[in-house]
Amino acid sequence: MITDRQINATRHPITLSFDDEALEEEFRSEHNSKTLAQVRVAIIIAALLYAAFSILDFIVFSDGRWKALTYRFGFVIPVLVLGFAATYRDYFKRNMQSLVMVIIYIAGLGIALIAYSYQDSRGELHFTGTLLPIFWAFIYSGLRFINAVKISLSLIVTYEVIFVGFSGFPIELLVSFNFFLLASMIIGVLGGYTIESYFRRDFINQQLISIEKQKNEHLLLNILPQNIADELKAQPGTIAKDYEQITVLFADLVEFSAWSLKNSAHDIVRLLNEIFSMFDGLTDKYNLEKIKTIGDAYMVTNNLRETESSNVESVARFAFDMHRAVESFNLRSSHKVQLRIGIHTGPAVAGVIGVKKFVYDVWGSTVNVASRMEATCPRNEIQVSEASYELLKNRFIFEDRGEIVIKGHGNLHAYLLKGEKVDE
Asked: What is the pLDDT of residue 87?
């Protein structure tokens, strides 16, 4: 994944390459992928034009006709056809820039050889054709700017060797030809530089959008479960789902209100953040869903994730780890924190209400009983309802508390969760 630091990397003023190697490699890979279809079209057009210009061999020229046709149909067009076929091979995709440079060079060389073969009968007409590969290299070949410059300079050197060194063209024709070559090179450089600058700006913008999207996605998933987040993005509004059985855990810091009166707000927030951050890490360990914090209370449930589920045993082990996390905190802190935990299992409704500042929450009697289990729990203990006890009794050790009074629910049987049984 590209980072913010890489996005801010500078570019070379001439080659346009990013200073960051990983960012440059990412751009090259994406550029090749996006321009592959364009390369195929360009090769097809080049082959068709090569074939179409053979009409000139019969209409305009009288000598060298068969030699020119041999260059067209026996050399260049077969190379173009093979090049087009190669675009569907992985090797071509990995080495696209180099292979496209070779194809353009052969196309340019073919035009030069045809012009050379007609030098005794208006071969100057083919001079203009030698400019086409240079424009092709810069404008529609899929080559990066610096590679277009390299292949264009190679073609110009080849033209100079063929026409100046071996042909019998008049000197004034060669001088004017070089003026056209120079002008086409300048136009190509300006166009190619602008095109690649645009491509690179667009690449950076897309990377920035992707980074911001990932940040927003991460923020959203810190608020909502994945399936609820996906549903809200698809169709905002009220979302509520029934769950036949979930386990709800409430944890509360003992006498926190009294402690908070003696300490600054900054110290309170710092302490809660440190403790609750440890709990957050444990929710990932056990595939649990943190629902919310209310003051010094911490609420967790299981079985809300569609892709990952966790049983009531995970909630019990999570509770033990919460106590161990608090013990670890007390060893390194001057504040001695004590914890009460309540657990209950039953049906509930979970979802999101409203369209602004939405919060994922769980409702129902199960939530109320879990909260009461915590409120009536002795300090540094874990109290569970009878419903949770029935699901856990085969794997865990309990202390029977008998019936306790639960506001709104009357007398309910409760148990203290003391430890996990050891397999014999």
From this structure: 95
**What pLDDT, on the 0 to 100 scale, is given for residue 236?**
64
| pTM for the structure as a whole | 0.63
Reported as type and span, the H/E element at residue 85 is helix 77-86
Residue 1 in this model has a pLDDT that exceeds 60: no
Distance between CA atoms of 313 and 383, rounded to whole angstroms?
14
**Terminal CA-to-CA distance of the chain, rounded, Å?**
48
DSSP per-residue letters across 92-122: HHHTHHHHHHHHHHHHHHHHHHHHHHTTTTT
Q: Any long-range contacts for 181-188 (C-beta under 8 Å, 24+ apart)? A: 181/130, 181/131, 181/134, 181/156, 184/131, 184/134, 184/135, 185/134, 185/152, 185/153, 185/156, 187/135, 188/134, 188/135, 188/137, 188/138, 188/139, 188/148, 188/152
Q: Hey, what CATH class is 226-420 in?
A: alpha beta
At residue 31, does pLDDT exceed 70?
A: yes
User: Is residue 63's pLDDT more than 90?
Assistant: no
Burial code of 317-353, b = ≥16 C-beta within 10 A, e = fewer?
bbbbbbbebbeebeeeeeeebbbbbbbbbbebebbbe
Every domain of the chain and the residues it spans:
4-217, 226-420
Q: What is the mean pLDDT of the chain?
A: 86
CB atoms near residue 183 (< 10 Å):
11
